[in-house]
Amino acid sequence: MEIIVEIIINAILLSSMYVLAASGFALVLSIMGVLNFAHGAIYMVGGYACYQLAIEYGLNPWLSLFLAAGIMALFGLFLERFCFRPFYGDFFSSVIISIALIFILQTSINLTVGVHVRSLPAFVSGMFKVGGVSVSMERLFTAVIGVSLLFALTLFIRKSKTGQQMLAVAQNSEGAALQGIRIHRVAAIAMALGCALAAVAGSLMGAVFDLNTFMGDLILVKAIQVVILSGIGSIGGVLIGGLIIGTLDSVLPLYTTPAITQTIGLTIIIVLLLIRPQGLFGREMD
Amino acid sequence: MIYLATVVILAFLPIFVKSPYTYHILILTFVYITATSSLRTLAISGQVSMGHAAFMSIGAYTSAVLARYVGWSPWLTMPLGALATMLVAVLVGFPFSRVRTIYFSMVSLFFGIGILSINSIFGKYTGHINGMIGIPPLFIGSRIPYYFFFLALMVVCLIVLWRFETCRIGVCLKAIDQSREVAASIGISETKFRVLAMGVSCFVVGLVGAGYAHYNMVISYSSFNLSASINMLVYMLIGGIVSFAGPIIGTAVLFMIPEIFRQLKEYTPFLFAGILILVVFVMPQGVVGLFDQIRSLVNKKE
Amino acid sequence: MKRNSLFKLRGGVSLVVALMFFLCMEPHATAKPKTLRIGFLTGLTGFASDSERVHLQGAELARDWVNEKGGVTIKGEKYLVELVPEDHKCTADGAVAGATKLVYDQKVKYIAGTIMPFIIAAVTTVTEPAHVIRSVAYNCGTPQEFSAKTPYTFLSQNGTIGAIISGLKFLKKARPEVKTIAVFIPDDGSIPYLEPQVRKWAKNNGMEVKGDIVGWPLNTVDFTPFALKAIKINADAVAMANGWPAMIGGVLKALRENGYHKPVIGLHYSQAKDVMEVAGKEASDNYFIHGINTNTPQKTDIVKWILDRGQTKYGHQRVAFFIEGFDSVFVLAQAIEKAQSLDTDDVKNAWEKMDDINTAYGLAHMEGQETYGLRHAVVGPRAIEGLEKGAVKSFGWMRDIKVP
Hints:
The structure holds three protein chains of three kinds. Chain A has helices spanning 2-32, 39-56, 61-84, 91-112, 137-159, 161-171, 173-178, 183-208, 215-230, 238-255, 258-275, and strands at residues 127-130, 133-136. Chain A is mostly helical. Chain A has one domain (2-214). The radius of gyration of chain A is 19 Å and the shape is globular. Chain C is built from 13 helices and 17 strands. In chain C, the strands form three sheets. In chain C, strands 7, 8, 9, 10, 11, 12, 16 and 17 form an eight-stranded mixed beta sheet that branches. In chain C, α2 packs across α10 and α2 (49-68) packs across α11 (319-339). Chains in contact: A-B, A-C, B-C. Chains B and C meet through α1, α2, α12 and α14 of B and α1, β3, α3 and α4 of C.
């Protein structure tokens, strides 16, 4: 009995972490229409930035987290202005730029600090005991932050003026431009937010798991799975997509071999997409 | 015309060039040119696959397993590998071809990752991530026979893909890509033609994958994973998707240049990224587009 | 008219590019007199490159060590070791290309380095037909890497099977109450080969592997499901074979977080400090691994030198990885000196017949006839360290390790 509870709790925690990792990716894809393959690399750089600030400069971990997010947000503005804006509307050129970005970011970090084994120290430590089951505080916090950020993001999009503009641009960019919305400003904000979210994910998960130069690669695949499953255009839907993928990843390995786990997981996604290509909550695209 | 000249030069290369390393690089370039060109055949029908290396793996592993464990000659197992790939392609093609471009790309991405997981289930034979060894070779000894084999294979496959593209079927496919409604009104069955494109494209990539397996004598996931698929996509896009020569030039540039500049060692990814950025900013239609740009410059002067 | 000039332009550019290509590609090996060129193939780029580059640093340390002591003497002439590094990009394609370049372009006759099974297997297809001697830096126990069919390949490390042998023996000594073990092995195709070895050697030491092997894929993000699986088995201890420090730490952390506090041992070589870095201080208890730290007693002179020079030259002390690179070059240099010849067949024959051979960890022996089909494995002593209540502790040395 106890192990079932542990399994469920772990599934929820892992799902929330996937949600955290995927939110920024979903935002950029939905608002800018860009499949940012570099999301994983930005996640990784955010984690290393936080480490630099917290360990090398000795700042408070939460402050470092905040600053790392800020730095990556600025980086996001730079990316939007110089890397993605010139190719607005050209899907494949954006893909190529993001791939080039992966190489640049990964190689830079690898050649400077990659050789050292690193992990961020826990932001909160200890175990949280409830009803005979103990849960790592670190994971719990990360999960809570992940889900909260997603809610905050959806609120922001629905209620704030900028958020409404983002929705408008996402649905019909020409129409939005005609209404006087400055598309590039909206895209810049989306990119900055997306990178900040990636940095937060990288820092928090860099403490729960570890930091290494190629950790972004694994996260990228998960983020793509979650976001495509939830649907392009849906931000809130990431919660459900994350829950599905997270549950599959936590439950299946317990009962079967890794090979079958991955096969089942991917088959489910493929079949779902064939039946409903726009994902669970995505909007129809032309 | 230029193709003929290149083929002739390549055919007579062994007289001048002696280094096995050069041949190795050229052989791999031929393999990837063929694979990337087949990717383009799919792409022109509006199906941009992000999992093409997975089909290459089906051809490679089928041929390798049959040759190694059942004992058939590689010359027999290679076409069988290609047939197996085509079969799988057509089977998944029916559901996949119904979804539109961007969704096809996503589904193919997951299929690409998924195929390797299925492969792992048969890990006892396929060697799993650790790789499969002991694959019977096509020729013993020097690389020269392999060189001519792959040169011939590439030429034949490219001719097949070219004819497919320019013949009635290919023209129809391009029409579908441009406007589904118009195509439908003329009576072109979209799904049928797309599946056909999948079949032809994947037969070619399966065949060249099988050939690759028997050349390398060892195959592993690292050659067929998501990275490999994305590489092929990038070669095609950088070369220029509009023209048939695009994938050829793109592969040649992006595959050979990092090999030529191996002395950069750990800085090589910067070179690769640099080429990508350069092409994307300066040559919007890919490297092939560069020639057109130069032509229009030349024309202006005349 | 316009088409003609276009074709001419295309043709011209293509020919220039082709010419450039071939001019750069033709072999340009420069053999300086009295240098012993040893190729070193490692992952300078690619998914494992952060650890692989430490191997190259270790190899450079070996070169410095050998050269500072006067190099290799063959028939009265001194040869200085020159490393020829190449990148295998952590892919099989890159490995074959790198090996081909080393063998045919750079014309090296000895290649050291490489660790992952699929990389080693890929390189073997190039080096064996060319009779190039390989001094492999690690071995995961699969036949792809190393078997009677690869007579020119030598293993410069105890490898996974060596770690299984020494680790399980140590476990029984340190924790005599352990009767059953749950085992973690990466699910990359090595389980069918390692499982019989783990079971056999557990039995030899009066223990038993309980339940199925817990296999985990190399792209695991979260180890909790696998930890839960192992905990369900409810064994007296957990052993882990293969994996990089981040994964090792991840498994330990997941086990401890889910309430498993019994002994955990790593049947591989790394730094306890690195494992603790990933697992966190709370999980770092009751844990053993083959590793060396600055407090390990009876360090050999070479290890002391590596710790020192590694810190000054490279800024870190990932000794286990340094030594994997170091020994692959060091033992090769000794074999060549023993053969008193640069011919690879002479070196092969001499190396096979050697009994004692020096390694960074101490005096080692050539073994492995039964396990691998060839007496090509260098087996030497290993230090054990561990984590106890959030601190790194040394547990002495395992000597007399024998791989049959």
